[in-house]
Amino acid sequence: MSRHLDYRELEPLERRVALMRAAGMSEGVIARFIDADYMTVGNILKRPRVARYLIALESTFVNEITESAKHLTTAIENEAVTAFQVEKTVMDRLFAMETNVRAQLGAASTAQDILDRAGKRAPTKVQTEVTHTIDAEALAHVASVLQEVHDQTPAIDVTNGGSNGRYEEETDRLAGEETTE
Fold first, then answer.
1. Taking a C-beta distance cutoff of 8 angstroms, is the pair 45, 56 a contact?
2. How many CB atoms are closer than 10 A to CB 94?
3. Domain count, the chain
4. Can you tell me the distance from the alpha carbon of 181 to that of 175, in angstroms, rounded to the nearest whole number?
5. From CA 114, how far away is CA 90, in angstroms rounded?
6. Do residue 82 and residue 164 come from a single domain?
7. What is the mean pLDDT of residues 153-180?
8. Which of 1, 7, 44, 95 has the fewest Cβ atoms surrounding its Cβ within 10 A?
9. Count of alpha carbons within 13 angstroms of residue 131, beta-carbon side
10. Same domain as 55, residue 103
11. What is the CB neighbour count within 10 angstroms for residue 53?
12. pLDDT class of 163 with cuts at 50, 70, 90
């Protein structure tokens, strides 16, 4: 027997837990079988010698499955052309039914599916871009109006130490109103 599958260094409980795990049982199910809790099973599976044995077991199963997976992949690839032709034929038939809205939706859905599988994503929404332009004469007029407003209205200093005194006058006026009330 291969050194990788040497189970003699395992305790009987460790070997049993590893075999059940390799068979696909969850830690909870294994725990019920051995009359323990799932944390105990987890701790057993984490032991280096048990983990090494489990990896060796699972790798032997994978080696046997590899050939079957290759055959399945080849079979799928061989049928892909036929499946595409059937899907395209159905799409064409549905699209030909111009008065049937459901048929048209089915054709559109089929076309999107074909494009998605080919890696060419069909557009699902339309985006528009609107650009607004202002002619130079109108822009010059707006600039002149803004300049007139700026020239007529001086800036107001709202800080406490304002140079034109408007803040202080307003504060004095409000203080006078409060005292009269």
1. no
2. 19
3. 2
4. 10
5. 12
6. no
7. 58
8. 1
9. 2
10. yes
11. 23
12. low
**12 and 100: one domain?**
yes
- Whole-angstrom CA distances from 145 to 133, 151, 152 are 19, 10, 11
Are 10 and 91 within one domain? Answer: yes
Tokens 């109108």, residue? 138
Q: Does one domain contain both 42 and 105? A: yes
The angle, 0 to 180 degrees and rounded to 10, between the axes of the packed helices 12-22 and 27-34 is: 140
Q: Model-level pTM?
A: 0.34
Distance of alpha carbon 81 from alpha carbon 89, whole angstroms: 12
Band (65; pLDDT cuts 50, 70, 90)? low
**Does 125 map to a domain?**
no
Domain boundaries, position 158 = 136-180
What number of CA atoms fall less than 13 Å from residue 92's CA on the CB side? 6
110 and 151 housed in the same domain: no
